[in-house]
Design brief:
single chain, mainly alpha, Rna Polymerase Sigma Factor, Chain: A, Arc Repressor Mutant, subunit A, 2 domains, elongated
Length: about 190
């Protein structure tokens, strides 16, 4: 029977039997695979990917030690999700750090060094601002608050807007859909 190349269940078995040589060999393969995943799928830099994989795998190995991972066949998917979450947490921290240590608004930072990319980003921001202006006053206030305070707690949101958190989530979802539709209308015209 041919072994599935996505099946790293042997890693758990090698770990449980204290086969350190096999564990190291499989971890090396898994680390390389996860680094490629972050770089290709999530456009993570080559310098950053190994650090993120290391952090994520530290948690995964702790789970393996506590025998919390029940389905060994889904180990790769679990590791990929852990790495993706680690990458997004890093991006979130980095965005927060930039905002705290800079007078420049995050929207003003070009995502690419080329002037064309900067112009495209400015155009997208202009379209988004027009779309937000078309919203009714209460929706406009909600989305502007959420854009400025993405880390706001549910309690803070319910207190500020005097509606339940479930209603806020529903309104947010509808507002985002309305903004997407508006953005598509503006960008295709």
């Amino acid at each position: 029977m041919k072994k599935n190349r996505d099946d790293f269940s042997e890693l758990i078995l090698a770990y449980q039997t204290s086969d350190d040589q096999r564990v190291n060999e499989l971890l090396s393969q898994l680390f390389n695979r996860l680094e490629m995943y972050l770089m290709v799928v999530h456009k993570c830099s080559k310098d950053l990917a190994p650090d993120l994989v290391q952090e994520a795998m530290h948690r995964v190995i702790k789970k393996m030690q506590s025998q919390s991972i029940k389905d060994a066949r889904s180990l790769l998917a679990y590791c990929m999700t852990s790495c993706k979450n680690e990458y997004y947490a890093y991006l979130k921290k980095e965005k927060k750090r930039i905002l705290q240590h800079s007078d420049v608004e995050i929207e003003e930072l070009p995502t690419d060094s080329s002037p064309l990319a900067h112009l495209i980003e400015e155009d997208r921001q202009r379209i988004l601002e027009k779309c937000i202006e078309k919203l009714n006053e209460s929706n406009k206030k909600l989305i502007q608050f959420l854009l400025l305070q993405p880390e706001a707690s549910p309690e803070e949101l319910t207190r500020m807007f005097n509606i339940s958190y479930a209603n806020i989530r529903t309104r947010k979802s509808r507002i985002i859909q309305a903004l997407k539709d508006c953005f598509l209308r503006f960008s295709t015209s």
